Amino acid sequence: MTLTAAGSWLLVVCTLLVDAGRGGNSWHASWRRHASSKPAVLQHAEARCRNHLTMQPELVDSRPQLAAAGQLIDPTKEVRAAVILPGDWRKYDLSLGKVMPVLQLAESAVHSRGLLPGHRFRFIASDDRCEAVYAQYRSVEAYAKDKVHVFFGPSCEYSVAPVARMVKFWGTPLLTTGAMTFDFSRNKTDCEGEYHLLVRVGLLSFRDMALFLIALLDEYKWTKVMLLYDKDGCEHISGKHTCKLMMGSLLEFMDRDKFTVRYYNFENISKDAIQEDLRREIGYQFSIYKSILTNLTNLKKKITTKKEEEEEEEEEEMVWK
């Protein structure tokens, strides 16, 4: 987790708060254009969101209110942010132990830029274990008990999905550097969008990676694709099934009439059997991979031969001595 990524969370929040205070609600103007003939729960959600953005006193409870000049009016002058991330810093790149100190540095950077002068952030840390059920529990607790103004995280794919669906009805934005699956990058300007109040501030998404790979295939006119992946590969980045979700995003944007696609999952395959399985699965239809595999095999043989020669030379030197 970099200072830039953590700082961007805070800077985006500050920008939204200041912009809302100045009446800059144009990015949510679609709410106002909706007809009233909607289910009661959706009407309630839209009303809460509208009033949250305009900071109507009757709906914000003890939350800070914004004056017309864009200044916060609150006795405590406190912005409460729920930080919902895994607690295991050894297993996950985005964890509480790594992110919390960086958020404190980012807060100092916000103050040094003169944003929200006189106000402070209170970061409420919660461990979601990179599990959807704990992420939901922690988010409900943070909203109901701590009355947070914004959520930082979750970042794991399966954790962020249910929380992002709920914050739409709470009128509370969720910012994350995760949520890389293509579903999270769909258009969210319509209030009926599933992840309407989810804001991705990461530098990369699976959609961007997929579009890049497809552009690369088009450039060299490659039409036969073999997807080789470990379902839980790169779990430290986005939790369970990170690689599987990446492959799903790639397939979502691939033209099936244009590309011939096959799959190979490394799950439950021993390392010794992978090479032979790849020869059988890939075959000559995907000869570029066959060529790479052959070259790697030859390279391995050369390294092994060289190592054996060096060991023989060392043995000869010892005998000579």
What does this structure look like?
The protein has helices at residues 3-21, 40-54, 57-60, 96-112, 132-144, 157-170, 206-219, 235-238, 242-253, 271-282, 287-320, and strands spanning 65-66, 72-73, 78-85, 120-127, 150-152, 174-176, 198-200, 224-229, 260-265. The protein has 321 residues and is α/β, with parallel strands linked by helices. The strands form three sheets. It has a five-stranded parallel β-sheet with strand order 4-3-5-6-7, with helices on both faces. It has a two-stranded antiparallel ribbon with strand order 1-2. β5, α6 (157-170) and β6 form a beta-alpha-beta unit. The protein starts with a helix and ends with a helix.
Compile the SSE list and pairings:
Blueprint: H1 3-21, H2 40-54, H3 57-60, E1 65-66, E2 72-73, E3 78-85, H4 96-112, E4 120-127, H5 132-144, E5 150-152, H6 157-170, E6 174-176, E7 198-200, H7 206-219, E8 224-229, H8 235-238, H9 242-253, E9 260-265, H10 271-282, H11 287-320
Helix pairs in contact: 1-4, 5-6, 7-9, 10-11
Key words describing this protein structure:
Rossmann fold; alpha/beta; 11 helices; Peripla_BP_I; 321 residues; peptide hormone binding; signaling receptor activity; transmembrane helix; 3 domains; two-stranded antiparallel sheet; signal
